Amino acid sequence: MRTALLLLALLVASTRLGTSQDKPDEIRLLVRADDMGAALGVNEACIRACKDGIARSVEVIVPGPWFLDAVQRLQANPEIDVGIHLCLTSEWDRVKWRPLTAAPGLADKDGYFHSTTRAFLEAKPAAEDIERELRAQIETLKRHLPRLSHASAHMGAATATPEVRAVTEKLCKEFGLRLEARGTKPVRGWGGSQKTAEQKEADLAAAIEKLEPGTWLIIEHPGVDSEEMRAIGHKGYENVAADRAGVTRAFTSEQVKDALRKRGVRLISHLELPAEK
To answer: What mean pLDDT do residues 182-207 have?
Structure first.
């Protein structure tokens, strides 16, 4: 069964790659759902955003506490493009994750990743420790999901300085991963933790209706409004569940889908971006 799913995923990937010739007057939109592995509610919402909504790529946090659940869901949905959210920080107050490797410079006094990118940089971890940790994350995810296609930096930590970026770029080249979605333009003005779900939905539809030809990018964090998600947060961002449930609503909205049809937008994944030079 697993072999059949893998073959289907490879077929989907080859089909997408074979039809990625961009037309000058075409509107292309890459919608990416981030943070799989961080919470059960995030895993559920990211899959829903792809299967019932407009997302076509997801990112996985390998050290996250719900990593194996994310793996199982993605193994069962081989059509979903998978990226790794390279992780060197752990931001929430009440749930944390640790490095996969023994690297004291990457961890706080309790052994968890530092809460912020600034704290990570102030700890001055050795480049070899960063490379060892990110390599372990990539190898772990590829062992479970060989179709891994791209990488991004959780909270920007893995690309925060030229030195750290060099480590990340080296690993991406070694493992054949695209780093980030270069050449795309961000869709702005529709999200934000202060907006209601209804506002996000309406504002995303309005933003899509204004898109011009080119390749556009939306990176957001779907979630569900559950007891688990309501326990997640940190000072200054306490309404995580409501905010991320609003993202899920916008990503699965019929109003948003109607706007895409009206503008003739083609939804793409990282697999359909032009090859990097």
So the answer is: 96
